[in-house]
Amino acid sequence: MRTSRASCGGGKPVTLRVAVVGSGPGGSSAAEICAKAGFETYLIEKNLSNAKPCGGAIPLCMVSEFDLPGEIIDRRVRNMSMIAPSNHAVDISLTKQDEYIGMCRREVLDGFLRNRAASQGAHLVEGTFTALKRGTPYVLEYRDKEGNARSLKADIVIGADGFHSKIAKTIDAGDVPYAIAFQERIELPPEKMAYYEDRAEMYLGFDVSPDFYAWIFPKSNHVAVGTGTMSPNKDGIRRMQKALRERAGDKIAGGKIIKIEAHPLPERSRPRRVVDRVMLVGDAAGYVTKSSGEGIYFAAKSGRMAAQTIVEAAAGGKLPSEAQLGEYVRRWDRQYGLTYRVLSILQDVFYRSDATREAFVEMCADRDVQRLTFDSYLYKTVVPAGPFVQTKITLKTLGSLLRGNALSPTR
């Protein structure tokens, strides 16, 4: 049953129109909910075969919560190697047989979510969004595949068009700092892929990432080898990638680079995420976590939350107000604000020098730390520990920091 709203002239009610710009996990998840609710939904994407550069790790809770089929997951990682600047490695393993970190290719994941939205009735529009004319209704202008100028009207607009969001610029959502994630997809022969069957690696060190960490994440027949940095300097990124390949050594030596990709990562949420009847989700809203750089789950979750807020606010055929749609942001901050603050503190404390990185890896050898970390990641909750465990973790953290001279401000 389609949800209607009264026309401006008081005539026959018409269906509420929602336009979503960007068909990544955030945009597709929003479009699916809106289409399922009976809204006239448009999902605009400049290239339906495009794949966003991404490490591609998703938490276990996303698989069940978003009903993802097993075939879109390339690898089920149950072992993680944390490798310190000194190359000291700590191996972390999930002990429960049904737990894993999913590794996906974004072209596969995004395609599935986009097609599912279309199966619910969302209209896929392949075109490059160019401008938003504000009013009642909004007018979205875009160019189709042939370069022809087109437009469509919408009552509500959802910006899911990434960090460099044109929708965000249109509503003056505010600027935020960003990092660059750069990675190479390297195809390995079967005998070398066997090592990465259910294993991922995180490398810490100023040589491979001065601000975050570097990674080797397994996919179908290749590994994603990448780094994150606040500096967009291309020569610096090349040096970091070279250092990462050298530290990985024979494990990836001789592999064939099949793709090189990069993308920006917002460092914090935008100051304004709902303006009038325009909403931002995913990277466009700034929903990437510090420390881990994770954004896929949070993009999909924010798209779903934004759409659910629209459905609630439009009950009875009303055109939602900014105040009603703003409830989405308030819910988001209540549910995930603590997670973002904790991870921001973790990055500030442990990623500021190689000494602190050594301390971090040392701390990760503790089973209680591992369990607390994995529970928080896999199920997206800040899991409280018992008083004894919490005291033990606190003392171990302080001890690791002191032994590694981590309190020194120098690198």
TrEMBL record:
Q: Which residues form the FAD-binding domain?
A: 17-309
User: Which reaction is the catalytic activity of this chain?
Assistant: phytyl diphosphate + 3 NADP(+) = geranylgeranyl diphosphate + 3 NADPH + 3 H(+)
Return the InterPro entries for the record: BchP_ChlP_pln/prok, FAD-bd, FAD/NAD-bd_sf, Geranylgeranyl_Rdtase_fam, Geranylgeranyl_Rdtase_pln/cyn, Geranylgeranyl_reductase
Q: Give the matching Gene3D superfamilies.
A: FAD/NAD(P)-binding domain
Q: Which UniProt keywords apply?
A: Chlorophyll biosynthesis, NADP, Oxidoreductase, Photosynthesis
The organism's superkingdom is given as: Bacteria
The pathway it acts in is: Porphyrin-containing compound metabolism
Entry similarity comment: Belongs to the geranylgeranyl reductase family. ChlP subfamily.
- Name used for this protein in its record: Geranylgeranyl reductase
The source organism is: Gloeobacter morelensis MG652769
What's the source species' lineage?
Bacteria, Bacillati, Cyanobacteriota, Cyanophyceae, Gloeobacterales
